[in-house]
């Protein structure tokens, strides 16, 4: 076979992607090895995260050097991650369904020509759809800033019984805003692909416009909708900065109310940088590596699920 | 007579249906408003406070001095982004070329799938990976090199998939014509296919640029923070960046720090939104 140097060259470039992914998994696993041995199952069943006495001599447990009294339990952060994401999905799903239906069916298709003074603007429906998409590109940290400056005072003043807005609810609201565009644009695309015949038959049976949408069109795109929700869940689980800034940073307690201070896995990793660096045995860094691995595996499972759902689900054209 | 008997319930049903529809439409409209209003509020709040904080010192003085400045952070974000793009664009576009031109096989779909997995990996996990590899194992310390490589890993999969998408839209007849004229692999790709798909590839690069300017989480564990301008070293020298100013300075008690945070947020948001709006308007037109 003829040697094709250019093809080989671009193949090597593209192999950087799997190589990076393998390196991420490999280094996280290797680095967290000692932590996995030391923590065992307590890692995910224990609520207590304690770096131990960093100034005393380290003790040796199961052949591993750890600071005296150290315990690494991350149950609270796993619960925090799942609770914020679940609540965010709960808020985001109705918002996105409403948004997608309204954009697709209620907003009139005003043509570009009608924007007399702004000929560069896209048609009205596309312009609004673009605004919704733009919500998804606002950097996480800017969302966090808005959360601290606007949402937290609002929640503290009008909603929270204690007057403190930080916590589970604030984190979930910010997350919900960040993931709504993902679900909404998936659903918007699917709804606009529903064949004309199906809409027209529903109208011919005497349905109101709203019934056409909810009873004839929505059931056809159900699987796509679920795929979009799972995709959004994957994004919500790993979201860091906005959550870190509004969640109150609760550690070692399980949330009991909507205003409990919480930490998610992602926000906890960031908040622990300084304390982990002071550990002379490096055990804290290893335990953080283990928790990063857990987060990676959770998002991997969720994203794989989304991919499976969407690969079999994009055929809106076959109703039955 | 039978009609008069059956009419009232039918009329009641029709009324209920139209009321349900009206309520449904209103609820959907409220949904849209609840999505768009926060966006407008974010843009409004950040712009008002950011513009109020903009002055010449921001661009000339460092955060380390007594004057209100963040020249070090602006410069740092600029440098990190340039180096990240310099690493990621050749790899990403090269991978896109492979996937679109030669990747219609099992290896190609595997790379595509793994690229999507990498896209779905939380940025903070990538940052922590870089921390244990570059900062701890290689002993680089918080540094430009670690930061730029981390951001590059983050944006390469986007670049690869967007370039692939742009390249596959070039009609096959163009490739066949070029090969028939005696073109080699290199001339066909660089003289025919890439120029034809250039707008799509540039779109991808701009979106990647927007991502790297707006990221925070992967930099916290790699870039560190420095109150002064970059000293020209790739390793063993932490570097400042704009998004750090946003998340730490807003939590300081004094108004000066707050105005710096808003100014930084304003600059970052302007870059990200301008690129995204511009790209979308261009794509719609073209």
Helix-strand layout with pairing:
The complex is a heterodimer of chains A (320) and B (286).
Chain A lengths: L4 H35 L2 H4 L3 E2 L8 E3 L2 E3 L4 E2 L2 H32 L17 H14 L2 H20 L8 H25 L3 H9 L4 H9 L4 H17 L2 H6 L18 H7 L1 H5 L5 H31 L7
Antiparallel strand pairs in A: 1-4, 2-3
Chain B lengths: L1 H52 L2 H5 L10 H32 L3 H15 L2 H15 L6 H25 L3 H9 L4 H12 L1 H17 L2 H4 L21 H8 L5 H31 L1
Helix pairs in contact in B: 1-12, 3-6, 3-9, 3-11, 4-6, 5-6, 6-9, 7-8, 9-12, 11-12
Question: What does this protein structure show overall?
Answer:
The complex is a heterodimer of chains A (320) and B (286). Chain A has 320 residues and is mostly helical. Chain A contains 13 helices and four strands. In chain A, the strands form two sheets. In chain A, strands 1-4 form a two-stranded antiparallel sheet. The relative contact order of chain A is 0.15. Residues 313-320 of chain A have low confidence and may be disordered. Chain B is an all-alpha fold. Chain B has two domains: 1-53; 57-285, Orthogonal Bundle (MetI-like fold). In chain B, 79% of the residues lie in helices and 0% in strands. Chain B has helices at residues 2-53, 56-60, 71-102, 106-120, 123-137, 144-168, 172-180, 185-196, 198-214, 217-220, 242-249, 255-285. Chain B is flat, with a radius of gyration of 26 Å. The model of chain B is unreliable at 1-6 (pLDDT under 50). The chains are: A mainly alpha (320), B mainly alpha (286). Chains A and B meet through helix 1, helix 3, helix 4, helix 5 and helix 6 of A and helix 1, helix 3, helix 4, helix 5 and helix 6 of B.
- Classify the beta-strand content of chain B into a percent band: under 5%
Compute the number of helices of chain B: 12
| Secondary structure tally: strands of chain A | 4
Low-confidence stretches of chain B: 1-6
Q: Structural class of the helices, strands and pairings of chain B? A: mainly alpha
Shape of chain B: flat
């Amino acid at each position: 076979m003829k040697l094709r140097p250019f093809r080989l060259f671009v193949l090597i470039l593209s192999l950087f992607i799997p190589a990076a992914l393998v390196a991420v998994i490999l280094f996280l696993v290797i680095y967290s090895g000692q932590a996995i041995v030391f923590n065992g199952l307590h890692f995910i069943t224990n609520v207590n995260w304690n770096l131990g006495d960093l100034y005393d001599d380290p003790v040796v447990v199961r052949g591993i050097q750890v600071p005296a009294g150290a315990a690494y339990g991350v149950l609270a952060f796993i619960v925090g991650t799942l609770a914020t994401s679940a609540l965010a999905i709960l808020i985001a799903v109705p918002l996105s369904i409403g948004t997608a239906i309204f954009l697709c069916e209620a907003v009139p298709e005003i043509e570009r020509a009608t924007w007399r003074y702004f000929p560069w603007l896209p048609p009205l429906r596309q312009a609004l759809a673009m605004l919704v998409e733009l919500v998804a590109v606002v950097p996480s940290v800017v969302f966090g800033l808005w959360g601290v400056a606007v949402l937290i005072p609002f929640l503290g003043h009008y909603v929270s019984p204690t007057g403190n807005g930080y916590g589970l609810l604030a984190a979930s609201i910010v997350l919900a805003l960040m993931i709504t565009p993902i679900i909404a644009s998936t659903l918007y695309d699917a709804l606009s692909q529903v064949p004309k015949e199906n809409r027209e038959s529903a109208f011919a049976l005497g349905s109101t416009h709203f019934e056409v949408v909810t009873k004839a069109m929505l059931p056809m795109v159900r699987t796509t909708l679920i795929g979009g929700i799972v995709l959004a869940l994957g994004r919500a689980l790993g979201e860091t900065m906005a959550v870190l800034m509004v969640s109150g940073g609760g550690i070692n307690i399980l949330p009991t109310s909507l205003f409990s201070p919480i930490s998610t896995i992602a926000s906890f990793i960031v908040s622990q940088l300084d304390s982990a660096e002071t550990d002379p045995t490096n055990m804290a860094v290893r335990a953080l590596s283990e928790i990063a691995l857990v987060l990676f595996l959770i998002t991997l499972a969720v994203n794989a699920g989304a991919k499976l759902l969407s690969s079999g689900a994009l055929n809106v054209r076959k109703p039955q | 007579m039978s009609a008069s008997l059956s009419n009232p319930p039918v009329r009641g049903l029709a009324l209920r249906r139209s009321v349900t529809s009206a309520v449904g439409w209103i609820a959907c409209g409220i949904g849209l408003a609840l999505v768009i209003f926060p966006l407008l509020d974010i843009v409004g709040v950040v712009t008002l406070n950011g513009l109020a904080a903009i002055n010449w010192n921001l661009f000339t003085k460092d955060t380390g001095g007594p004057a209100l400045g963040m020249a070090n952070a602006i410069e740092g974000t600029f440098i990190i982004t340039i180096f990240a793009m310099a690493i990621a664009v050749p790899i990403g576009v090269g991978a896109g070329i492979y996937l679109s031109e030669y990747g219609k096989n099992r290896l190609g779909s595997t790379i595509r799938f793994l690229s999507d997995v990498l896209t779905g990996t939380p940025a903070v996990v990538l940052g922590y990976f870089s921390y244990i590899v570059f900062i701890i194992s290689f002993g680089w310390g918080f540094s430009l090199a670690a930061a730029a490589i981390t951001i590059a890993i983050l944006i390469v999969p986007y670049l690869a998939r967007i370039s692939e998408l742009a390249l596959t839209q070039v009609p096959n007849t163009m490739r066949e014509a070029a090969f028939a004229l005696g073109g080699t692999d290199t001339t066909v790709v660089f003289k025919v296919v890439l120029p034809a798909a250039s707008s799509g590839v540039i779109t991808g690069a701009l979106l990647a640029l927007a991502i790297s300017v707006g990221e925070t989480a992967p930099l916290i564990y790699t870039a560190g923070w420095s109150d002064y301008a970059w000293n020209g070293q790739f390793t063993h020298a932490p570097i400042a960046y704009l998004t750090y100013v946003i998340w730490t300075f807003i939590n300081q008690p004094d108004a000066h720090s707050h105005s710096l945070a808003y100014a930084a947020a304003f600059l970052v948001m302007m870059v990200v939104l301008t690129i995204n709006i511009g790209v979308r308007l261009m794509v719609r037109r073209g």
